[in-house]
Amino acid sequence: MTKAIMPLARAALVVAAAWIVTVAGEARAGEVDWTALNGAFKDAEFVKDPAVCFGCHGDYQKKYEATPHARLFKAGKALPSGECETCHGPRSKHVANPSRELALTPVQQNAACLQCHQGSGRLYWKSSKHGSGDLGCTSCHKVMERVSDKALLAKEREDQLCYTCHTEVRGQMNKLSRHPVNEGKVSCSGCHNPHGSVTKAMLKGASLNETCFKCHQEKRGPHVWIHPPVLEDCANCHQAHGSNHRKLLTGKDSFLCMSCHTYGGHVNLPRYNRVSSLAGEGCVNCHMAVHGSNSPSGAKLTR
Ligand code: HEC
Ligand code: HEC
Ligand code: HEC
Ligand code: HEC
Ligand code: HEC
Ligand code: HEC
Ligand code: HEC
Ligand code: HEC
Ligand code: HEC
Ligand code: HEC
User: Can you say how many angstroms the Cα of residue 3 is from the centroid of all Cα atoms in its chain?
Assistant: First the structure.
């Protein structure tokens, strides 16, 4: 062995960064300043009686009552402003003289939701790409009726919801090798927090690698013999969504390896290249432990 690498010391640097811990329960930010959202709310009072609303909006009753909110609010989880008006604001004037003048835009509507959902998964909402744009909670959630088994989503399936705006990802998820999202085995929110996170691309983990380790724990190590690009970033070799190369690789087997291992040596010898033929699986036929090895003789990642 010639190289003075210290695999154990290196491996010790692999910090088991904690999975972003979400706070149990939801913080309440207090009630909304309705008049600031829409001047027409001025002087309006809370009616606090859904029965009054259903008098004219009876068509919503059955659907709404099947939602978790309706059940929770009946069980005493509503704010003092009542049920409907927690989200729709004080409506005494509306009841007396109904019109659409109290209507809110989706982005204005967010303030009502955040009264109860500011904390937990929404800690980074305001700085996220979704929260800093024109999206409302209602771009993804439907609260007046339950159309999805999951989290009041506006579409039955989560991926279909995301694809309505992210058409390019739909294409990626149809490639030869892909995370089985369309097959229903992984969801977009398995890797992303659609409400924002501290990590790039709203990833759920503290880093890209930590996100992957959530499901591919065995790749975390620590390994006695490490392969530096693995520790650095799984994306050095893998696409997260889909790829037309096998195993979600960013390039064709040996070409991928040789994009970094360009020097001479056995890589260029015919007897190795025969094994790592264009049709075969290339270098990993011998370098099987490409993610790192714990074998005493695994320095060259061959076992
Ligand atoms: C958790 C918040 C929330 C609660 C509680 C709630 N709503 Fe809604 N409601 C919304 C949102 C958001 C929309 C608009 C988005 C949509 O169409 O899905 C809406 C839409 C409506 C509409 C149709 C608005 C339109 O543009 O035509 C009516 C009517 C309505 N709600 C009445 C009620 C009544 C009556 C209650 C109480 C029984 C109630 N809502 C409870 C959030 C809520
Ligand atoms: C006397 C009948 C009546 C009563 C009572 C009533 N509404 Fe309405 N509401 C209407 C009419 C009419 C509209 C306008 C519908 C349209 O043009 O699409 C409307 C529109 C709405 C809208 C959509 C526009 C907006 O202002 O945001 C919401 C939400 C709504 N009502 C909620 C409520 C709630 C909550 C209550 C109970 C506090 C309530 N309504 C009580 C008749 C009524
Ligand atoms: C008065 C407080 C309150 C308001 C306002 C409120 N919610 Fe909720 N919501 C709750 C509670 C309580 C739960 C159940 C516990 C939880 O999941 O945090 C809940 C649950 C949810 C869930 C999960 C449902 C499920 O099936 O798992 C979603 C999604 C949601 N709310 C979205 C919204 C949106 C969008 C708005 C605004 C239109 C909103 N909420 C307004 C209190 C509120
Ligand atoms: C880009 C789409 C999108 C937007 C915008 C969005 N959500 Fe969600 N939300 C989701 C998805 C997807 C889930 C299910 C996630 C999961 O199962 O991990 C979810 C789950 C939830 C839940 C239940 C689970 C939890 O995290 O507590 C709540 C509550 C919730 N959302 C509230 C909100 C509120 C409030 C807003 C607006 C401030 C909002 N959402 C905006 C997509 C979205
Ligand atoms: C209503 C449209 C809409 C829906 C639905 C939607 N998104 Fe987005 N998403 C956006 C927009 C707009 C951006 C910002 C695009 C940009 O800045 O290039 C974005 C950005 C993103 C980003 C990149 C964030 C970053 O920091 O770079 C991710 C990841 C993402 N969305 C995931 C999702 C997931 C997962 C879902 C489904 C739960 C979803 N989106 C649903 C509109 C949407
Ligand atoms: C296995 C984990 C995983 C799954 C599942 C996943 N993503 Fe991603 N996604 C990532 C990673 C990692 C990145 C960041 C790639 C990078 O920047 O290196 C990303 C990036 C994105 C981006 C930003 C793209 C860009 O070019 O900046 C969007 C939008 C996105 N994902 C949407 C989705 C949607 C929609 C789904 C579900 C259909 C989904 N993702 C499923 C891991 C995942
Ligand atoms: C929410 C769980 C989950 C997360 C997070 C996740 N994966 Fe996966 N991954 C899976 C599942 C499920 C499969 C399919 C396994 C199977 O079919 O046996 C898979 C398969 C793979 C495959 C093999 C693909 C093939 O064609 O056989 C690779 C490579 C992979 N994941 C890399 C990653 C990377 C890189 C990340 C981080 C960006 C990641 N995974 C994050 C669940 C996940
Ligand atoms: C140096 C390139 C490289 C890096 C970096 C890399 N991988 Fe891989 N990965 C591969 C190759 C090559 C294969 C195919 C191995 C084979 O077929 O024997 C593979 C296969 C996989 C597989 C599917 C087969 C299996 O072994 O389970 C998963 C899952 C996977 N990688 C996850 C990850 C994760 C998670 C990371 C980041 C911690 C990562 N990879 C980083 C090259 C890499
Ligand atoms: C992103 C760049 C990159 C890619 C792609 C890459 N490697 Fe590496 N590899 C490295 C680095 C950096 C080292 C550490 C070199 C060192 O310590 O001198 C290394 C080390 C190795 C070693 C051990 C070398 C030694 O001297 O101990 C082997 C074997 C190896 N890589 C095989 C592969 C194979 C097989 C692939 C393709 C699946 C691959 N590598 C893809 C960057 C890469
Ligand atoms: C037939 C099996 C085999 C194949 C195929 C193979 N290698 Fe190796 N490789 C080895 C063995 C065995 C060693 C250890 C040699 C030693 O210790 O002298 C090694 C060593 C290495 C090293 C360490 C530096 C060196 O030259 O000793 C690198 C880097 C490497 N291989 C990269 C690759 C790449 C990239 C490919 C694909 C183009 C590849 N190998 C294909 C068996 C193979």
Answer: 41
| Model confidence at 1: pLDDT above 60 | no
Distances (CA, A) of 296 to 95, 102, 129, 178, 224: 78, 71, 46, 34, 8
Q: How many domains does the chain have?
A: 1
Q: Give the separation between CA 298 and CA 289, rounded to whole angstroms.
A: 8
Q: Which residues line ligand 9 (CB under 6 A)?
A: 3, 5, 227-229, 236-237, 256-257, 259-261, 283-284, 287, 290, 299-301
Helix (H) or strand (E) holding 242: strand 242-243
Binding site membership of 270 for ligand 10 (Cβ less than 6 Å): no
Is pLDDT at 155 greater than 90 in this prediction? Answer: yes
Could you tell me if residue 186 is inside a domain? no
Q: Is 87 in the pocket of ligand 3 (CB under 6 A)?
A: yes
What are the C-alpha distances in Å from 130 to residues 138, 166, 198, 204?
12, 12, 13, 15
Q: Is 79 in the pocket of ligand 3 (CB under 6 A)?
A: yes
Instruction: Please give the distance, rounded to the nearest whole angstrom, from the Cα atom of residue 63 to the centre of ligand 6.
Output: 33
DSSP label at residue 118:
S
Domain assignment present for residue 87? The answer is yes
What domain range is 43 assigned to? 34-125+141-146
For residues 265 and 243, which has the higher predicted lDDT (pLDDT)?
243
Rounded to whole angstroms, the Cα distance separating 91 from 96 reads 9
| Residue 292 contacts residue 300 (beta carbons within 8 Å) | no
* Domain presence at residue 95: yes
More reliable by pLDDT, 44 or 18: 44
CA nearest ligand 3 atom 28, residue: 151
Give the Cα separation of 217 and 210 in Å (integer).
9
**Nearest ligand to the C-alpha atom of residue 190:** 7
**Residue 38 belongs to some domain of the structure:** yes
Cα-to-centroid distance, 236 and ligand 10 (Å): 19
